[in-house]
Design brief:
By secondary structure, the protein is α/β, with parallel strands linked by helices. The protein is built from eleven helices and 13 strands. A nine-stranded mixed beta sheet has the order 5-4-1-8-9-10-11-12-13, sandwiched between helices. Helix 1 crosses helix 8, helix 3 runs parallel beside helix 5 and helix 6 packs across helix 7. It starts with a strand and ends with a helix.
């Protein structure tokens, strides 16, 4: 049940209506790996600079995350600075410095090439294609992207989309990719491009999952304490793919995909309760199970 993730590791500087932090650990692969690690072993592929804290790498290793695919390069780690207003669904970018990530050219360790589950984080579509060429016979490949790549490399991105099983995007991204405003129509149009399943992240409005004949909507968990939505989408993807990988060997059913959506939503709900990865680092299985039970109670009804 090997789960491979390729994505960014970064320093984030974030301001929200509830506080401000400078140079805290972030990045799509960081959030994804931590979230998934509560459900399955993770293999991480990324690059950081010499300035990245050893303590964070030790923490990731302690969570059972395999770092053979992580390159520590000469130079400075990727940095992002942004802010949120009271609409926490919208991140406003102030500054992006790619630094060592600019020349990221991932080469998978030999053991990683047999990974059964693969998640391609929101990196250059060319790199996503390179990774796909290196894995041998994955059972499930999922893809994330962002509006930057939709605008810069649309043809390459469509080539990747044709090659994956699941696309995980937010509302704005799928509307831009398909030209459809209605989310159900947009998902159906995307599935005609190749993937059999589409997961649409809707921030505080939850998640919409669609496959050939299925539609499943999961709410966002109503929280009293929210500090920072950064990484919530990546944490959702980690929980979603982590659950599917934990079921390796079983014949996955539509109920498994629904459960994966709830696992992703539950774990992501912890991410926003603190800045950076602070909340994700110390979760217990009891907390996760309790949040899952709360989701069940939140959505259960009888006629």
């Amino acid at each position: 049940m090997s789960l491979l993730v390729v994505g960014s590791m970064a320093f984030d500087s974030i301001k929200s209506p509830f506080g401000e932090v400078e140079r805290v650990v972030g990045g799509s692969a960081t959030y994804f790996s931590l979230a998934a690690s509560y459900l399955t072993p993770v293999r991480l592929v990324s690059v950081v600079g010499k300035d990245f804290p050893k303590g964070t790498l030790d923490m990731l290793s302690a969570r059972g995350i395999d770092l053979q695919g992580l390159k520590v390069a000469e130079g400075i780690t990727f940095q992002w600075k942004g802010y949120y207003e009271y609409d926490l669904n919208v991140a406003h970018t102030v500054k992006t410095d790619l630094n060592v990530f600019e020349n990221f050219a991932p080469v998978l360790p030999a053991s990683y090439r047999e990974s059964r589950y693969v998640f391609l984080g929101n990196i250059d579509p060319k790199l996503q294609l390179d990774i796909l060429a290196q894995v041998r016979e994955p059972k499930i490949v999922a893809l994330d992207t962002m509006n930057f790549w939709i605008g810069k490399s649309p043809q390459l991105l469509r080539e990747v989309i044709r090659s994956v099983d699941i696309v995980v995007v937010n509302e704005a991204e799928i509307r831009e990719l398909t030209g459809e405003f209605n989310l159900v129509k947009a998902a159906r149009k995307m599935m005609r491009m190749g993937p059999g399943r589409v997961v649409i992240k809707r921030g505080e409005y939850g998640v919409l999952y669609l496959s050939g004949g299925e539609i499943f909507a999961a709410p966002a968990y109503p929280l009293e304490t929210i500090f920072d939505p950064t990484g919530a989408g990546d944490s959702f993807a980690g929980g979603f793919m982590g659950y599917l990988a934990s079921r390796d060997g079983a014949a996955l059913t539509e109920m498994d995909y629904r459960l994966a959506t709830i696992y992703g939503s539950a774990i992501a709900s912890f991410t926003v309760e603190a800045f950076s990865t602070e909340r994700l680092q110390g979760l217990s299985r009891e907390e996760i199970d309790s949040r899952l039970a709360a989701f069940r109670s939140l959505t259960e009804f009888r006629v």
